[in-house]
Fold this sequence. Notes:
The chain is α/β, with parallel strands linked by helices. Helix content is 52%, strand content 14%. It folds into 2 domains: 22-241, Alpha-Beta Complex (2-enoyl-CoA Hydratase, Chain A, domain 1), CATH 3.90.226; 246-288.
Amino acid sequence: MACSYFQFVRSSHRLVNLTGFTRRNCTKVHKAQDTLKHMTGGSVTLDKDEKSGIAVISLDNNKKKNALSGSMMCELNDIINELQLWQTGKGLILRGENQTFCSGGDLDTFQNILSPEQGYSMSGFIGQCLTNLSQLPLISVALVEGNALGGGAEMAMSCDFMVMSDDARFAFVQKKMGVITGFGAGTRLVRKFGTLKALEILASARTMDATECEQLGLASKILPHSENVLDLTKSWLHNYCDGDPKVVRNLKAMVVAASNLSLEDSHAIERRLFSELWGGESHLKAQKSKLKH
Length: 293
């Protein structure tokens, strides 16, 4: 309910112009998807744990350090659409197989997408995919092992948190490739850190280790490189996802609304989400047991 209500508010009169823009470009985005799905290589898988309410998305393109092929982008989009319907979910981990996160886009895919119009359509498709990921009613964390470079760094930025292994590296290398960020990470960086710090990170195109990422506030936790780093990340995420799924999901929906909408609209959603929980099973149970005290 929280997710559907948020989507309803986003389609209000205050966002008519944006909605119209999206509608006019919808055909181009679908065309990009149709093109990308034929550029095969690697895979993206989903594992949902109903007991914990935590799902894991895994990128796997071993020969290319988990670089994203066109078909992987489409698989990721389908998985995110599936997670939008997962009513009992609370948390999400985005990770890469083979002890590395993602080295960006597969060059074999991008060599077939070289015109500005194609780039615009592809950016629209992947950008919307990552926006949908960021707005899932699940508390999400990117588990970065090895490298998160270029588009891989953009993917990690679409999650609520980032956890890094102590040997991980993170870089926005787009400038070195003759472009800029195109999937939304530039905007997210500016909103998270402000103009000057975002510009410094993007314009330097430097590679940052886990310690620097933690100092900057990009990474929330550094974990020792080990075979059980995924289990450690699940335990870390459980601290935030423990409890009633309805409460966790409404909390995330409120934060998403506050970061995207006006104060007036965001407050309206916050009150609505609050009222959905007031007098509910978890609230009454807490009242009875006097957990506050």
